[in-house]
Amino acid sequence: MKIDYKWKALALLWVAFFLQQGTRQLFGPSAPAICGSLGVDKVSLGVVGTVFAMTYGLCVPFAGIAADLFNRKWMVVAGVAIFCLGIFLSGFAASIALLIVSYGVLNGFGQTFYYPSATSLISQLHKDSRATAMSILQLGLYIGIVGCGTLAGFVSGKGGESWRMPFWVFGGAGVVWALILAFFLKNTKSVSVSSSAKPSTAEAVKAVLSRPTAIAVILGLAMMIYVDIGFKNWMPTHLQNSFGGEVAFLSRWAGFHSVFWHYLGAVVGIMFGSRIGDALAARRPQVRIESGIAGLFLSVPFIIWMSSAGSFATCCVAMFGFGVFRGVYDSNFLATFFDVVNPRYYASGVGLMMCIAFLFGSLSSTLLPLISKAFGENMSFSMASLAPFYLLGAAVLLLARIKFLFQDLHRVDEAK
Question: Domains, the chain, ranges and CATH?
């Protein structure tokens, strides 16, 4: 049976997304070992995560605009090669300053080139299966985070300099995959038909920010990214601090449990949400933004339960519930954005969205250990502080659903 190129392209980009998202999770489970190896505290190490997210946020709008102007295939290839080189070099870092340069700056810069170009390619190829294709891509995030985070936590649990090995393994594998993408990925041209038709930076920004629903999606994503960065970077530490005495294996397996239960739930949520979104969107276009509202709002009680759970088992159940509704949100947020933005601004729009979301979200990597320090090194307060951000994101999307969605959908239809 012949497989359409659109699914082959999705598979190639899926592996790249697995590496992009998975290598981000090398940091959190390795945090205690890195602190011991480099002789720094959690707040100083949190700065590395903040620099990474800020670098990503500052550079990604330019990467998005470049993806609308230039060859998207080579943007993807270059991005994967650069960020994986940064990950690989992070394994050799002998000081916090060098880790900031390799992991924070080089890795963050390289990652900006991947997502706007990849999602634009997929969106163009999968016009009738957009939410499903985006959800399959999103599975790469879940599986990458669990797989890479588990290995990082298990290996770094041995102590000493063992935390470096996962950075070498996945960084090196990513450089090889960049070569595979160069050979097998085809370029899908932008919808711009000529050089004169290509959007300028100002034009792209104005086009996206003129749609209130698009602004709401961006703000909702900013709330989600803040929670996501804080959760991934510091949940392993929270598990070890809260349940290390109760569960002996957490010294080696906190990296696994901090993400496995959450993303297992997310797989359930994203597959359910994407199928519902694609099935109903034609006759009920508001279903996609409604999925985002429900996902964020219904996650809140599980975040609170997760942060205050009295036992390791109940904490895992709470992380699973949090994951289910996070997956429901993930299943349609990008499809919602593309529904209200003109196709000629897809990549630059995603770049702008990621810029705002990551600049705001970058704060949690440093703020959470500061909150913990203020409460006697208790990460429970830090985890609980994440809940209001999901609630605020749901409120912003609800406002857009009530006041702006249909007029923005109509404006896109008229532009087409």
Answer: 5-184+198-415 (1.20.1250.20)
